[in-house]
Design goal:
The longest helix is centred in the middle third of the chain and has 15 residues, at 270-284. It contains 18 helices and 23 strands. The chain folds into two domains: 9-249, Aminohydrolase, N-terminal nucleophile (Ntn) domain (Glutamine Phosphoribosylpyrophosphate, subunit 1, domain 1, 4-Layer Sandwich); 267-456, Rossmann fold, CATH 3.40.50. The strands form six sheets. The protein has a seven-stranded antiparallel sheet with strand order 3-2-4-1-10-9-11. A six-stranded antiparallel sheet has the order 5-6-7-8-12-13, with no helix packed on it. A four-stranded parallel sheet has the order 17-20-21-22, with helices on both faces. It is 31% helix and 24% strand. α5 crosses α6 (150-160) and α9 (270-284) crosses α10. The chain binds adenosine monophosphate. Adenosine monophosphate binds at residues 257, 295, 298, 360-369, 401-403.
Length: 473
């Protein structure tokens, strides 16, 4: 399966705080929405790096008794997204390796579009890979670099890799955070009690009470230097700006689906941005209805904006059980359906005989919309009008969101009318690219819209075909 190289993740780190591990653990909790497949923390204890990681949610991997046994003043955490591909403990991050430079831990969010090619080259030169993750090429490139300092070695690795990386590296001496020249994935810097905190999203900073300093710039590398253990000094930072020539390509899908509503990216709040999308959608696809509802949780902000603009009551038509971790998935279809029912239940007395506007943030394969329209109808809804707060998702993402191959994308081969029919809705309206650019593109300069428009900012020609990936990894 190719799933393992298409992933969205969350990264979090603390440098120079006596409770670094505990803070990192809370930070990962706040970033759990970015990945539920595996979680891990690497930390410095007694001058050495250690790592603990496992499959599942942060709460599965780190029971409290485990966290209290992990003491250190630097910690680096990672949550990995569950994809359709095989999930393996070897691919859980942070990756911790030992090389001639000493210990090196890495947590990476994004996809390296030339990882397969680099890996092939490195393997020919004698490198032995331990994982099937694209991220592993980075420690190999760092190990091979002749640069004296780690910062220089990492930068020479960055010259070779293409694609998306918002990453954090940890050594026994300090921490380095970096973003690729396009800045596909968010990554921000904060401060807490004189210590530095790095997080995929600002909600991670909020969770530990850190003050937001700024978003790391595309192409920028930030190094946090720690005093030697026992030395009474504060950590310091130095930053190295990246090449300025390339245009930022922040993933627009972070605003549509991925990021948490309480996060801000470049000062733009995700909830407020989604509400704006919902408002414009209401103007674009007006409909007479009794209530507006969203698919919990990612669509609720857009749905509330739609309802406000349309002047139709915003209702809770579906109740989501928030206490479900990893559900046991039965191979038997009837039981599998039961497992889904535990997660989402329609409010029958509210929906009966009602004309419903169902707002969702996206249609990727169309599975969710089809399922939920059916659920609302079986609960008695008279009409179901689906409104999507993004344009038709037509092109696969190569920079870190799991959208699999083009063949699986509903809008790649179907018209809006065909999708409407397939999901069983009474009407269906999407936003279009122009709307999205007007709403978000004026607030932040430089988005990647490739999943909607197909214009990939970093070439993907080197991307191997699905069957080639099986041989490579
Ligand atoms: P689909 O069911 O394949 O059409 O996916 C669309 C639904 O899944 C929407 O309800 C989205 O909120 C959600 N969604 C969109 N992108 C992703 C993603 N990369 N991973 C998981 N869920 C997603």
């Amino acid at each position: 399966m190719s799933g393992e190289i298409r992933e969205e993740c969350g990264v979090f780190a603390v440098a120079g705080h006596p409770r670094a591990v505990e803070l990192c653990y809370y930070g990962l909790y706040a970033l759990q929405h970015r990945g539920q497949e595996s979680a891990g923390i690497a930390w410095r204890q007694g001058g050495r790096l250690r790592v603990h990681k496992g499959m599942g949610l942060v709460s599965d991997v780190f029971p409290p008794e485990r966290v209290v046994s992990m003491n250190g003043d630097m910690a680096l955490g990672h949550v990995r997204y569950s994809t359709t591909g095989e999930s393996r403990i070897e691919n859980a991050q942070p990756l911790l390796v030992k090389m001639w430079r000493g210990q090196f831990a890495l947590a990476h969010n994004g996809n390296l579009t030339n990882a397969a090619l680099l890996r092939r080259e490195l393997e020919r030169e004698g490198s032995i890979f331990q994982t099937t993750s694209d991220s592993e090429v980075i420690p190999h490139l760092v190990a091979k670099s002749g640069e004296k300092e780690l910062l220089g070695a990492l930068q020479s690795a960055f010259e070779k890799v293409c694609g998306a990386y918002s990453l954090i590296a940890l050594t026994p001496h300090g921490l380095i955070a970096a973003k690729d020249p396009r800045g596909f994935r968010p990554l921000c810097l904060g401060e807490l009690d004189g210590a530095y905190v790095v997080s995929s999203e600002t909600c991670g900073l909020d969770a530990v009470g850190a003050e937001f300093i700024r978003e790391i710039d595309p192409g920028e590398t930030v190094e946090v230097l720690l005093p030697r253990e026992g030395e009474d000094a504060r950590p310091s930072i130095r930053t190295v700006a990246g090449p300025k020539s390339e245009r930022q390509a922040l993933c627009v899908f972070e605003f549509i689906y991925f990021a948490r509503p309480d996060s801000d990216i470049y000062g733009l709040n995700v909830h407020r941005a989604r509400k704006r999308l919902g408002r414009v959608l209401a103007k674009k696809g007006p409909v007479e209805a009794d209530l507006v509802m969203g698919v919990p949780d990612s669509s609720l902000s857009a749905a509330s904006g739609f309802a406000e603009e349309a002047g139709i009551p915003f209702e809770t038509g579906l109740v989501k059980n928030r206490y479900i971790g990893r559900t046991f998935i039965s191979p038997e279809q009837s039981l599998r359906e039961l497992a889904v029912k535990i997660k989402l239940n329609p409010l029958r007395s509210l929906l009966k005989d009602k004309r419903v506007v169902l707002v969702d943030d996206s249609i990727v394969r169309g599975t969710t919309s089809r399922y939920i329209v059916g659920l609302l109808r079986s609960a008695g809804a008279k009409e179901v009008h689906v409104r999507i707060s993004s344009p038709p998702y037509k092109y696969p993402c190569y920079y870190g969101i799991d959208t699999s191959s083009k063949g699986e994308l509903a809008a790649a081969s179907q018209t809006v009318e065909e999708i409407r029919e397939a999901i069983g809705a009474d009407s269906l309206v999407f936003l279009d690219m122009g709307d999205l650019q007007d709403i978000l593109g004026t607030a932040i300069d430089g988005f990647c819209y490739s999943c909607f428009a197909g214009d990939y900012p970093v070439p993907v020609e080197g991307w191997p075909k699905e069957d080639e990936l099986n041989d490579l990894f």
